[in-house]
TrEMBL record:
This is ABC transporter permease. It is found in: Cell membrane. Pfam families: BPD_transp_1, BPD_transp_1_N. The chain crosses the membrane at residues 12-30, 97-119, 131-155, 175-193, 229-250, 275-301. Residues 95-298 form the ABC transmembrane type-1 domain. It comes from Paractinoplanes durhamensis. PROSITE patterns: ABC_TM1 (PS50928). The keyword Transport applies. The keyword Hydrolase does not apply. Keywords: Cell membrane, Membrane, Transmembrane, Transmembrane helix, Transport. Belongs to the binding-protein-dependent transport system permease family. It is a multi-pass membrane protein.
């Protein structure tokens, strides 16, 4: 296990540097005039332009700019955005907001997926099973760029069931609609995986043995089937964190939630390279750590798995 963890940590380091290099290269490639993009239509003097160019090393080549960024990053400095704010302070403000939204979305998605998936797996071919299949296909077919404004229009504005927008200090009730929209990214996949896992385990030999011993159906499903069926689902929930973070860019923008996705959207629109790369670097670290934890948890839940 120790050797496996060391090997994974080395892979995480390589992945982190590779991801930051690619993101930095993409931002460098699409940059036209970040200074003008920052000020918009307002005029800017030559002295101001020269000062900003020198501060952000905009006259240097790509590798020189990347070296300046990585040198600061390795010392804990995420840089300064084009708005003259420290990226670290912006992260400290935005990260708790996105974490609340993502955790609520994970709870909603896992609850719906596990409950509906278990029922579908037990009652294969029933009306409920076929209905969940159709609903999951519809959800998978709808991109979040369509679903988010549609949900806001229908449930937030027309029907008035939920607040149409949420702010920095939003309550759980205000975050419920955007969290439900965000959960739609992963709930369909988790439901189908749960359904398939339950259906497979119900045909396993240990289930027939448990029933032959006279155990009740509820005990067979609750103690034996469910515990083994949730192993792949837990792994999938960890992987889904990346999808939730990417979906938060659209969701937070639509519902006016000043989190990580909201700031990333603004940074991309204004060509704010330090802001985008700094936020993405933290997201990469979180994604890598969560996947490592999920892999270790997978081994703890399934004794058949041994990491060497």
């Amino acid at each position: 296990m120790f050797r496996y963890i060391v090997r994974r940590l080395l892979q995480m380091v390589l992945t982190f540097f590779g991801a930051t290099f690619i993101v930095y290269a993409l931002m460098f490639a699409v940059q036209d005039d970040p200074i003008q993009a920052l000020v918009g239509e307002r005029p800017i003097t030559e002295s101001q332009r020269a000062a900003l160019t020198e501060r952000y090393h905009l006259d240097d080549n790509f590798f020189a700019q990347y070296w300046y960024y990585m040198k600061g990053l390795l010392t804990g400095d995420f840089g300064t955005s084009m708005t003259n704010r420290k990226v670290s302070s912006m992260l400290a403000d935005a990260w708790p907001v996105t974490m609340r939204l993502a955790l609520l979305a994970i709870v909603i998605a896992a609850t719906i997926a596990i409950l509906a998936g278990v029922v579908s797996g037990i009652r294969r071919g029933s009306i409920f099973d076929n209905a969940t299949l159709v609903i999951t296909l519809i959800v998978l077919a709808m991109p979040i760029v369509v679903l988010a404004p549609l949900a806001q229009l229908v449930f937030g504005i027309k029907l008035g069931w939920f607040p149409a927008t949420a702010g920095k200090n939003a309550t759980l009730w205000q975050l419920l609609l955007p969290a439900g929209v965000l959960a739609s990214l992963v709930v369909a996949t988790e439901l189908r995986v749960t359904r398939a896992s339950v259906a497979e385990n119900l045909r396993a030999d240990y289930v027939r043995t448990a029933r032959a011993k006279g155990l009740t159906g509820a005990r067979v499903i609750g103690v034996h089937v469910l515990r083994n069926s949730l192993i792949p689902v837990i792994t999938l929930i960890g992987v889904d964190l990346g999808a939730l973070m990417s979906g938060a860019i659209v969701t937070e923008k639509v519902f006016n939630i000043p989190g990580v996705g909201f700031n990333l959207f603004r940074g991309i629109r204004t060509e704010d390279g330090p802001l985008v790369v700094g936020f993405v670097s933290v997201l990469v670290i979180v994604f890598l750590v969560v996947n490592l934890v999920v892999d270790l948890l997978y081994a703890a839940l399934d004794p058949r798995i041994r990491y060497e």
